[in-house]
Write a structure and sequence with these properties.
Layout (H helix, E strand, L loop, with lengths): L8 E6 L11 E3 L3 E12 L15 E15 L6 H8 E7 L3 E7 L7 E7 L8 E18 L5 E8 L1 E4 L1 E10 L3 E3 L14 E2 L8 E7 L2 E5 L5 E10 L20 E5 L2 E2 L4 E7 L2 E2 L14 E2 L4 E7 L6 H8 L2 E10 L2 E13 L14 E5 L10 E7 L5
Antiparallel strand pairs: 1-2, 1-7, 3-4, 4-9, 5-6, 6-26, 7-8, 8-9, 8-10, 8-19, 11-12, 11-16, 12-15, 13-16, 14-15, 17-18, 17-23, 19-22, 20-21, 22-25, 23-24, 24-25, 24-26
């Protein structure tokens, strides 16, 4: 029986070492994944007499770019893993429910392995694709009246592993070597999972010696020939925590400015982590780990009706205000507290509709540290770190 489109899945796991594959442990409903593996082609500019078309020996693989966007709905529970990689620092109190408090902190050593399960049309099994070394470069939390709250993350990744292939002539020797005359190993196999008799669960290819031999980590546990070996990602079994698939909605939301409740038609909070994603060095097509090179920026956009001059006066006077956006559903909640300056607050009218006043604010740090600019708090029924 062929798999169906709704058999798609997406799972996440924190990496212990950057770019090293980890089996996914946290799953979310598939919403809007748009991750890709792109290879730039390098073409020689040399001219060969009589050749009207570029030749096979005149082009080669160039820089590889991996990453993209993943859209989520803002789930009532189990969103903390995403927030940790959006912000960097998390502190937890309580013992179910838990309160996780996130503040801007170092994200240099934080990375995720993302496994996307893609059902091929008329295929018999979902194909796993894994993106390694995923780091959050920017994010956006949004909600509009009459809609479900959403969370969008943009990732820069190290590499991607596509699918699984099998050979039946594997040879193991109770050491770290694996040989196969038919495997046709390439450097792209480095980091891939290997499974078979005498090979421990979670074993990966540490290095590629040549087309017939690789080095495994850890060592094999048996000496054998004619071993059937699966090379590549294995599709994880998706499981979803309670409320991990239940989103916050517009009627769960509230916004206050300077301690007073305000009525807004839409809310957008954006974060940019200031990562340099194109760190490239001689000898590798892959980009090196993305690192911080600039300030992080956080902004807020509020859609409002024009009712008074408070916001425009705050803009003119350079006033900083506390902005709190919260979502509450029973005992579960997500609250983002920000110290902001006004960057835009001009009212407008077309003479036909109610006057509006879209407001843009930027989070700024006071003397009490990065958390004074923006802090997120999630009350979770069961998620721990």
């Amino acid at each position: 029986m062929a798999v169906q489109a709704h058999d798609a899945q997406i799972g996440f796991a924190e990496e212990a070492s950057y770019g090293v594959r980890v089996a996914p442990t946290r799953f979310y409903p598939v919403h809007e994944p748009n991750l890709s593996y792109e290879v730039e082609r390098l073409e020689s500019e040399g001219v060969i007499a009589g050749a009207d078309v570029i030749g096979t020996d005149q082009w080669n693989g160039g820089p590889i770019t991996v990453g993209g966007d993943v859209g989520f709905e803002l789930y009532q529970d189990f969103a903390g893993l995403l927030f940790k990689h959006m912000f960097g620092t998390v502190q937890t109190t309580g013992a179910g429910p838990y309160t996780h408090t996130f503040t801007p902190g170092s994200i240099d050593d934080l990375s995720l392995c993302i496994q996307l399960g893609i059902p091929p049309v008329l295929g018999a099994a979902v194909i796993p694709v894994e993106f390694l070394g995923c780091k959050v470069t920017e994010w956006e939390l949004a909600c509009a009246a009459d809609e479900i709250a959403t969370l969008g993350l943009t990732f820069a990744a190290r590499d991607a592993l596509y699918g699984t292939r099998s050979v039946t002539d594997g040879v193991t020797n109770t050491d770290t070597s694996l040989t196969s005359a038919t495997a046709a190993f390439t450097q792209a196999d480095k980091g891939k999972l290997v499974a078979g008799t005498g090979i421990a669960a979670g074993t990966t290819i540490a290095s590629v010696t040549n087309a017939t031999t690789v080095v495994l980590s850890p060592a094999t546990t048996a000496t054998a020939t004619g071993v059937t070996v699966a090379i590549g990602a294995t599709l994880a079994t998706a499981s979803y925590g309670t409320k991990a698939a239940t989103p916050f909605k517009f009627n769960h939301a509230a916004v206050t400015v300077a301690g007073s409740a305000v009525e807004v038609t839409d809310l957008t909070i954006k974060g940019t982590n200031g990562l340099k994603t194109d760190r490239r060095f001689l000898g590798s097509q892959l980009a090196a780990k993305a690192l911080r090179e600039g300030r992080r920026e956080f902004t807020v956009e509020l859609g409002q009706e024009f009712r008074d001059l408070g916001a425009i006066n705050a803009l003119k006077n350079g006033t900083e205000v506390a902005v709190v956006a919260s979502f509450t559903a029973g005992s579960l909640s997500a609250t983002i507290t920000m110290n902001c300056r006004y960057d835009a607050a001009s009212p407008s009218t077309d003479g036909k509709s109610l006057a509006d006043q879209p407001v843009t604010l930027k989070c700024v740090r006071s003397s009490s540290g990065n958390g004074s600019a923006i802090t997120a708090a999630l009350v979770s029924a069961s998620e721990t770190f």
